[in-house]
Amino acid sequence: MTLHLQTLSELRRQLDAGTISARELTAHFLDRIERFDGELNSFITVTAEQALAEADAADAALAAGNAGPLTGLPLAHKDLFCTDGVRTSCASRMLDNFAAPYDAEVVARLRRAGMVCLGKTNMDEFAMGSSNETSFYGPVKNPWDLSRVPGGSSGGSAAAVAAGLAPVATASDTGGSIRQPAALTGLTGFKPSYGRVSRWGMVAFASSLDQAGILARSAEDCALLLGAMAGHDDRDATSVARPVDDYRAALSTPLAGLRVGVPEEFFPAQLDAGIAEVTRAALAQLEQLGATLVPVRLPSIDLSVAAYYVIAPAEASSNLARFDGVRYGYRCDNPRDIEDLFKRSRSEAFGDEVKRRILVGTYALSHGYYDAYYLQAQRVRRQIANEFNAALAEVDVLVGPTTPDVAFPLGARTDDPVTLYMADMFTIGANLAGLPALSMPAGLHQGLPVGVQVIGRPFEEGRILNLAHQFQQATEWHQLRPGFGGEA
Amino acid sequence: MSLDPQALARVAHLARLDLSADDHNGLTERLNTILAMVDRLQDADVSHLEPMAHPLDAVQTLRADEVTEPDVRAQVAPLAPAMDDGLYLVPRVIE
């Protein structure tokens, strides 16, 4: 099998057996990026020279017998993780000229584990979007159908992995930005519990929701990467000090006796019949594997999108206040005075969606509206979190669709933000409650991938990865590849 | 909750955004669509619940007041848009 179709675990075996070197592996992916990314636009920056140097160091470690489970394996980082000496743009004109002077904790951990960074992937500007159409560097295409979106905001990471331009990529999830693109490109996407992975060095969008995670070809690969990414970081006050489980050891547990909650609200009457059918089939498969299906209720989940679009913009308006032309990023030419410098720098460098969210957030936090909107949204958030926790006290995990649709055509929803926001209707709840969640490929509809979502209790990442791995041992949906990029 | 052009201008000033006349027309309509969607929150009876600002309900931790960061001047300085004699050059804002 060609290298770019293989999982990390399969590539690991080849590196360990010596049938390929880390340099050859890295060169293979760099060659694929050069040949195929012109159509996909999944990378903002490719760090070829640095990658080959890192690969040589990995080969030396392999030869010396000092290799760990990730040594020599290539990956790409979403362009909101700071990387020492390399542009970290967050897909914004605002940070187009920003080279971070340090590594984000996630990047540092994976670097220390010996992984080889191929480059930085495209994304929605400041991670604001559900289709990867808001990037300053242009939209990303879905390798399954180049006329369609790959999902957002981690669409560059998703398209790169789905098209075989990288075997795995980091990503971030504020309202579904890992799981939604995973579903739309046929990948396994994993968002750990809030606090499980350090956010230090990750450009902030909505700080109480953002969490770093993974886009990969399998649950096993997610487990492999999470083991290196997870753990307390005393530079991140929201990072949780509790031991990291052995996620790979958890994969092989049989599902017999597992209680799977099926929220009635995840199957609304208007849900696309094809998506519902694929999800029901996945649930039947889990039942065959020994799980018990239990109906549960999440009555307030239909308010999650509304709560999110008050809370996330409010936090964004605060986080993005630092980008003023003085402290960070783009600066306008010839400002008249300091007010003009702030306003023109921000207006010239932020895109439309970022401006929309800053305005909504500023409005929701302004005098006269704070109690009615911001505090009300935070109370609804509490209700939604309470309902998730009550359901998860009865069952081990919740399972439902990841998205209401398959990948939609580029440009189809750019003039209709509310319809676009609804693409995250099933994923936002896990962010509001801080729960770990995963999307796994479970079928095709209209020839395009469909994802099924698994949500777990806080810090029970191993249980979710176990369910997904057992499902993937019994099915072949995660092995389907788009007909893009030659042999892919 | 809805915005008229005057309210939008006030919010844009608070957000330090400079909106053109074209921006105003399109934005007022789109923002009102978003605000109409979030208006659904008003129907929820949640007055008995504490607002949830954070998924871990964590309290802010404080570290000891000690210098912990290394001197990275030599790393950071070359990244600045303009330098002169070891000093950062910034736009003149006080005449």
UniProtKB/TrEMBL annotation, chain A:
Heterotrimer of A, B and C subunits. Belongs to the amidase family. GatA subfamily. The active site is at K78, S153, S177. This is Glutamyl-tRNA(Gln) amidotransferase subunit A. Allows the formation of correctly charged Gln-tRNA(Gln) through the transamidation of misacylated Glu-tRNA(Gln) in organisms which lack glutaminyl-tRNA synthetase. The reaction takes place in the presence of glutamine and ATP through an activated gamma-phospho-Glu-tRNA(Gln). Residues 24-465 form the Amidase domain. Keywords: ATP-binding, Ligase, Nucleotide-binding, Protein biosynthesis. The gene is gatA. It catalyses: L-glutamyl-tRNA(Gln) + L-glutamine + ATP + H2O = L-glutaminyl-tRNA(Gln) + L-glutamate + ADP + phosphate + H(+). It is an enzyme of class 6 (ligase).
Automatic annotation (TrEMBL), chain B:
It catalyses: L-aspartyl-tRNA(Asn) + L-glutamine + ATP + H2O = L-asparaginyl-tRNA(Asn) + L-glutamate + ADP + phosphate + 2 H(+); L-glutamyl-tRNA(Gln) + L-glutamine + ATP + H2O = L-glutaminyl-tRNA(Gln) + L-glutamate + ADP + phosphate + H(+). The keyword Oxidoreductase does not apply. Its EC number is 6.3.5.-. It is an enzyme of class 6 (ligase). Keywords: ATP-binding, Ligase, Nucleotide-binding, Protein biosynthesis. Belongs to the GatC family. NCBIfam families: gatC. HAMAP family: GatC (MF_00122). This is Aspartyl/glutamyl-tRNA(Asn/Gln) amidotransferase subunit C. The gene is gatC.
